[in-house]
User: What shape does this take?
Amino acid sequence: MAFDLKDTNLSGLPVIENPDSSYVPRPENFITKYDYAMKFAPQLIQGLHFSNGKGSITGVLDAVSGGRSRTYATDMIQWAEQGRLHLHLEGVTIASDVFTCPKPHQLRPNDIVAISDGEKEWQAHVVEIISTTKFKALNKSSVAFPTDPVTIIADFFSSDKKGGDGMDRGKNWDPKNRQNFTHVIPDNYTISNSDAKHITWVAGPNDEAYWMHTEIERYNTMFDNKVEMAILFNERGDDNSAAALAGLPRGQHGVIPFVEQYGNIANDLITTDEHLSDLAFRAKQQGVCREFMYFARHAQMRAISQMAKGLNAAHVNGGYYGAFNNSKDMALALDFTSIYIDGVDFHFKPWALLDDPTLLGATNFDTSSLSFFGVPTGKVDVTNNGNVESVPYLEVLYRGMDRKRQMKMFGLFGTQVKGDRSYIDLLTECTNRVVGANNFVVGRTSNFYV
Assistant: This one.
């Protein structure tokens, strides 16, 4: 039988045996056993046991955002991200020195463009701007331009003759505007007044009094899980969906759907160093971040360990990367959690949510949900209200700090109500901001992305 820590006795803690009428349970003096141990008695943490774990799947957002959270004031937040500094165009056709582009080229006379058909390269001097998608450029080579569509680098360099007029205009970089929406997450816990009496009072180091209740503690943990899952996974309803047409709230763009729309996606597990090399190359193509945290399910963690052990194998043609520095009193650590490859660091961490058999580890979800979620570390610059500021790649925002985790108690816990019951309302209003989604990666366990 598993160890079961009862509310009536917390070994090693100063339990208040006979609380008088001055001890009134309120939101501000409620505390969980785990939080109490973390704050006042860390030596007791190992004694706190639940048969299927504490049940908490939170932590990813805290780890990614560095524990930082800010507030917002309106139903929608907006920010702007600068795109690439240099412009290239694919699928450009050439006829009689006139280049036709699939999107605006932003070129000017005296710009020099580079041209490639995949086998040979050319350079051409821009002499006339016909329209936003057409320009005339003269070949700098005696070899004729190709007849098939080409790729051009528009911002290659420029050239002018002595005493020339130079450029007649500058260039503009239009930032990409992004937005997200507010999301209200409510919940309720109701208990009979008889069961609500099962409260344990404990004293803090400065004679403060805190109260605990196992069921309410579990309810709080479940609510925190639901908030994190809403921020990560909520799919904002389509304009013409049945739910939206019925007037139901559409909520925020969850982090995962946002990355799936604007970032990188992958099918199946990362199993070889070639797969990691592909991810490292994509990171170099998309941004400047060279260190990533990957939150993964058990199968992905196992695949990483197997891959790393294979690279260190003693078989013929197997790579060897040094001996394990192991002492007689130390168990051999067989898991690999960090790998440096092609100039990029990858750190792997298990994500309980993906393996929980009541959540994304449940039947069917275990083959359709995430295998990993790759997040860039560090900060990036965005334009916010005309100002450039440095923010984490992923940031959680709350509609005022009083709505970060608003708790209201009724009955024996607060305002009296009719009926032999007490209840608690919890509410969070929040949203998220994913900056540089092109640096994130979402991987699914099967061929989810067609």
User: Anything to note?
Assistant: Residues 357 and 364 are 11 Å apart (CA to CA).
